[in-house]
Design goal:
It is globular, with a radius of gyration of 17 Å. α1 links the parallel β3 (about 35-40) and β4. A 7-stranded mixed sheet has the order 2-1-3-4-7-6-5, with helices on both faces. The protein has one domain (about 1-204). α3 crosses α4 (about 165-170). About 25% of the residues lie in helices and about 15% in strands. It has helices at about 70-80, 90-95, 155-160, 165-170, 180-185, 190-204; strands at about 1-5, 20, 35-40, 80-85, 105-110, 115-120, 130-135.
Amino acid sequence: MIAALFVERDGAYYRIPGVDPWPEDRDARTYNGPWPVVAHPPCQRWGRYWHGAPCKPHQYKLGADMGCFAAALTAVRNFGGVLEHPAHSHAWEYFGLSKPNNRGGWTVADQFGGFTCHVEQGHYGHFSRKPTWLYAVGVELPGLIWGRSEQRIHPRALELHGYEKARRIGYMAMIGGKDKTRIRDATPPEFRDVLLSMARSAAR
């Protein structure tokens, strides 16, 4: 069994044999084992705009996520598994984790047996490049598809705005409507399966 922590209800981790999903209403901060984990703690207060939207800056404090990242980090260290966060997350520096090499490959993250890497989910089916940092403990470290993934340009954006602006605004700007955030945050099935495989190796 694998515990999938901080995941979307009815999302990518549901209806998979051997996976126990923990959406928001189960409060994954209370997870106390015994299974290895795949953890997706909320990233809003750790990313580029941790302080709030550019038009309303300084609304929030850095890391004010109600202890979610700290709980996910503890679960990975205690029970084995992998944690996923956006690349350049401020949580790495805040919790004393070494930053990974942007070119790829696994590097030592801390004194707790943790390893970290930089990988783009665009290699695994995401609409955008979605650069991502992983932190793993007690698992087999797979060789992932390293480096930059393909730049996808929406044909309608290319038609309306030309190449340079279409490239600049990105594919995600043209899809999703009100579901844009959910689509952007979703884990592609192929990448989810990589993370689950890592966590299962901890169970072995």
